[in-house]
């Protein structure tokens, strides 16, 4: 079956612009996670969704970052007024029961 | 709070040699432990995981890891390295009730002829 998909695969934007990153989880997976992978910080947790609710947003680095999930499926991570330090690979993962997370290929974000 | 330490950011081995990637964890509760592999420009792929039961866990591509509670370790091994094993490897522990992953800094494995 289809795995986790993310779009776009690459995004180049100018400092100060807003960007939206999309994640399509595996069908039926109720848990969805966003992580960020950057050179200086490694792999960091950003936010967790159970269904459409986000009980854990503790990893979002600033109020410029937000995320939503609709229909218990697709999730969008939005970064407002992007900064150069936001440049990273943003990874999405989904899970049926939390015991194993399946990762998408990531979106590489470059802020010029 | 849970944390993961991977010793050695870069490991280089000869093709056919033993692969040993080290991982130590800190956890206040019985841990769920994972090894993921990342090939260039790709996402993370699960190699193996330990939840409960047998402490020696076998994964894909001939890798295995042993959970040693007394040493708080979960080292990854493979008896004979292949060129295709060259990648970055991440050890991770589940943290908290929402099962988010806490990752180590990663170990880049190079395999030379």
Please describe what this structure looks like:
The complex is a heterodimer of chains A (112) and B (113). Chain A is mostly beta strands and 112 residues long. Chain A has no helices and eleven strands. Chain A is 0% helix and 53% strand. In chain A, strands 2, 4, 5, 6, 9, 10 and 11 form a seven-stranded mixed β-sheet that branches. A four-stranded antiparallel β-sheet of chain A has the order 1-3-8-7, with no helix packed on it. In chain A, a hairpin with a 3-residue loop joins strand 4 (31-38) and strand 5. Chain B is mainly beta and 113 residues long. In chain B, strands 2, 4, 5, 9, 10 and 11 form a six-stranded mixed β-sheet that branches. Chain B has a five-stranded antiparallel β-sheet with strand order 1-3-8-7-6, with no helix packed on it. Chain B is globular and about 45 Å long. The interface between A and B is medium-sized, with 25 and 22 residues.
Query: Most extensive interface: pair and counts?
Result: A-B, 25 and 22 residues
Class based on secondary structure composition and strand pairing of chain B:
mainly beta
Q: Which descriptor suits the 3D outline of chain A?
A: globular
Output the radius of gyration of chain A.
13 Å
Give the overall pLDDT of chain A as a whole number.
94
From the spread of the alpha carbons, the general shape of chain B counts as globular
Overall SS class of chain A: mainly beta
The radius of gyration computed from the alpha-carbon positions of chain B, rounded to a whole number of angstroms, is 13 Å
The low-confidence parts of chain B are none
User: How many β strands of chain A by DSSP?
Assistant: 11
SS field, number of helical segments of chain A? 0
Instruction: Output the helix-strand order of chain B.
Output: EEEEEEEEEEE
N-end to C-end Cα span of chain A: 37 Å
Q: Major sheet of chain A: size, sense and barrel closure?
A: 7 strands, mixed
- Say how many strands of chain B there are: 11
Instruction: Report the span from N to C terminus of chain B.
Output: 41 Å
Bin the strand percentage of chain A: over 45%
Number of helices of chain B: 0
């Amino acid at each position: 079956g289809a795995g986790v998909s993310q779009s776009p695969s690459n995004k180049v934007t100018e400092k100060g612009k807003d960007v939206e990153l999309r994640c399509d989880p595996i069908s039926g997976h109720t848990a969805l996670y966003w992580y960020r992978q950057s050179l200086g910080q490694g792999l960091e947790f950003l936010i967790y969704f159970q269904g459409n609710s986000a009980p854990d947003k503790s990893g979002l680095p600033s109020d410029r970052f937000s995320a939503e999930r609709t229909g218990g499926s697709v999730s969008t991570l939005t970064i407002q007024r992007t900064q150069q330090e936001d440049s990273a690979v943003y990874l999405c993962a989904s899970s049926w029961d939390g015991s194993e997370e399946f990762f998408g290929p990531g979106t590489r974000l470059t802020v010029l | 709070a849970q944390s993961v330490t991977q010793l050695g950011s870069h490991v280089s081995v000869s093709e056919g040699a033993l692969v040993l990637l080290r991982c130590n964890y800190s956890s206040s509760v019985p841990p769920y432990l994972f090894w993921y592999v990342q090939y260039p420009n790709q996402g993370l792929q699960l190699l193996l995981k330990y939840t409960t039961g047998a402490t020696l866990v076998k994964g894909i591509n001939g890798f295995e890891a042993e959970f040693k509670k007394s040493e708080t370790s979960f080292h990854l091994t493979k008896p004979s390295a292949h060129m295709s094993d060259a990648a970055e490897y991440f050890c991770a522990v589940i943290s908290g009730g929402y099962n988010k992953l806490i990752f180590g800094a990663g170990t880049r494995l190079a395999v030379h002829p």
